[in-house]
Amino acid sequence: MSSNPSAHLHLAVALDGAGWHPAAWREAVSRPRELFTAGYWADLVTEAERGLLDFVTFEDGLGLQSSHPFAPDERTDQVRGRLDAVLTAARVAPLTRHIGLVPTVVATHTEPFHISKAIATLDYVSSGRAGVRVRVDARPDEAAHFGRRTVAHIDPDDLPAARETVTELFEEAADYVEVVRRLWDSWEDDAEIRDVATGRFIDRGKLHYIDFEGRHFHVKGPSITPRPPQGQPPVSALAHDTVPYRLVARQADIGYVTPRDADEARSIVAEIRAGQETAGRAGEPLHVFGDLVVLLDQDAAAARARLDRLDELAGEPYTGDAPVFTGTAAQLADRLQEFAAAGLTGFRLRPAVAGHDLPAVTRDLVPELQRRGAFRRAYEADTLRGLLGLARPANRYAATV
Amino acid sequence: MSKPLKQIHLAAHFPGVNNTTVWSDPAAGSHIEFASFAHFARTAERAKFDFLFLAEGLRLREQGGQIYDLDVVGRPDTFTVLAALAAVTDRLGLTGTINSTFNEPYEVARQFASLDHLSGGRSAWNVVTSWDAFTGENFRRGGFLPQEERYARAKEFLATAHELFDSWHGDEIVADPVTGTFLRDAKAGAFVHQGPQFDIHGRFDVPRSPQGRPVIFQAGDSEEGREFAAAGADAIFSRYASWDDGRAFYDDVKKRLAKYGRGKDQLLILPAATFVLGDTDAEAEELAGQVRRQQVSGATAIKHLEFVWNRDLSSYDPEGPLPDVDPDTGEDHIARGRAQVRMYRDRLATAREWRELAAAHHWSIRDLVIHTGNRQTFVGSPATVARTINEFVQGDVSDGFILVPHITPGGLDPFADKVVPLLQEQGVFRTDYEGTTLRDHLGLAHPDEADQRRVAS
């Protein structure tokens, strides 16, 4: 059967510690003492590349992981501690050739100037495979790690106030992405001329001040780093509600969403597409990926039993922001195709146990999707934009002839 | 009995965004593609160098209100490129320059601790300060510091970063799947810092890295900078590579260590040094002259004269005589974003001196800039250069050198191939790495050990 690339799903895997289940590190296949070594991350990303996945994401935050969304905990029974995601992505870049590398960055407390050049540099060291996932940080304890601002405590009982805080953080994140993107364009592609006759290394007419003036900050530019190989590395964000959907619609190339069923997927996609139109981006490609935590085994009962066992180790049933799937690769393929029919263009799978469920994705799910003509059989592009079907964009500052 | 020979430390500085770097040479490659960095790092590692060094600048330089276009412009993000280099090298130290004004301790500490983990203990941080509003325009934190506060901030930044590095001791991760204990200590990484620059508290999120803390470099030269280095740095990236200046600096800084309870081997002095090699000394001298002409084009000569004259000299012919007009002694307004400008405090005196020099030697503007600018530190045959470097180190000019080639990325190769073997034959440079961390290469104790030594003394 011939496969039609437009019918292909896009697949990413979200990497975090030993996996997404809090007890994942206790599984025999896990390597909890190696979580802070380069070798561990290189092995995971190499496995993902073996499965021809579009990209991997690297979770990150500016404080220790917590079982509570807005406050720290003092648990000692779960993985705590993390390496910087951008550096981890850069460390594995020279060891891989095709797979996209998408670290998480926190917009709330970092400098867009630093992040813009860091992701541009990740794009250079990976020859065009960088992306970035932008998130906000609403934890007051993490704000105290910086001491520059206070973040209002999110009180679930005071929804209007919580919504206002979250809206503010996402508005700021939208400005942040705008600055990052302008800085990527602040050098035109042919700015470096090396004209020996006049002694000029660059044509400074092709470098641009971005002069961003927003409500939260202003940034002059240009970047110190030339325009990255992809021009604009793909920007992505996780979104669970209207406010973050708006960030996705305005600024992202990929949104990660968490529908429980096909109907919900349909309505989320509709909301994002409407937001895209409002933002004046109606014609632009924007991927909407479904996020799923996955436990894959040869039969559904085994996967279910594994989840039960992990829950028992954790002392509580696993609940997260994304739906949890247990079953076989064929069942998961069915589910993905059903969601794809509802308008999702790809999926970001979160392996419950990295050492088990990542290889299950690459060795069982991927061949299953290939048999159905729904996934690539070889890497068809050299850049992440290429894998996602995104053209290399024109520079916003380049004079059009 | 003669004292034992010092072992030389050698490092490689990736060619920078100034006119030392000759981009116009046919052999000059990309300053931004990773292949250039990988080539450079592999050469340094093949030669058993201690480390690779990256500089940093956070705003493109300007002159006369326009982006300066005559030197290499543009560079990658320091942390990101060093993390990638950790993948293509195995032993080489990775030193990054990171500003303490336009960053926050929590973020920088987690980046260095991460780099140290990801490189197996090879990270080093060259702590620099800046205070200019010009650079601050690129940052949301905006602003800048009064000049007199820059060391106060740098000191407190470094002290705070150390508190973060030390908030994990190294034995917290148990990861016992049977008992379900991942962390031994529910408060691992807890810290509180209250000071005039930083008021932060919480928990640091990167466990203790192989070196404990990155190796700390300092580059400032002022009285305050020297004290700062003596108090806590592991190495100084200095500008004094000549015999007299180097010995004076070395002596001055090493003397300051005692009052901090530190031994003379606990702070290494490593000046930046350039080199030109030839088959013979005469050939090297001739090549050095050619390189100087490449480094100082006519356009570059005019721009350099503007640093002193502090006015637009674009109408002058670089092959002609020096301007009759005197420098503008008012506020600096010609060049922004570079340190060099501050070196000419008395503009009128410098102009007078340069006019006399030019008249005596019949020099054009370009000739003058070529001759008064920085001549290469080491010029000669490989044997001459190896002998000179060894004499300088044994004579306490320094503990070694940070070499700055003028060609990217291949400029280090001839040094690696021809000079390093001679130093090895003389028994003053390692023939292979003896340890795995940068502290091992530099002969520096792990911070836990160093702290014990300090308490004991």
Automatic annotation (TrEMBL), chain A:
**One Pfam family named in its UniProt record:** Bac_luciferase
Luciferase-like domain residues are 36-310
Q: Which Gene3D superfamilies match?
A: Luciferase-like domain
Instruction: Name the SUPFAM superfamilies for this protein.
Output: Bacterial luciferase-like (SSF51679)
Origin, by domain of life? Bacteria
Q: What UniProt keywords apply to this chain's record, in alphabetical order?
A: Flavoprotein, FMN, Monooxygenase, Oxidoreductase
Q: Which family does it belong to?
A: Belongs to the NtaA/SnaA/DszA monooxygenase family.
**Name listed for the protein in its UniProt record:** LLM class flavin-dependent oxidoreductase
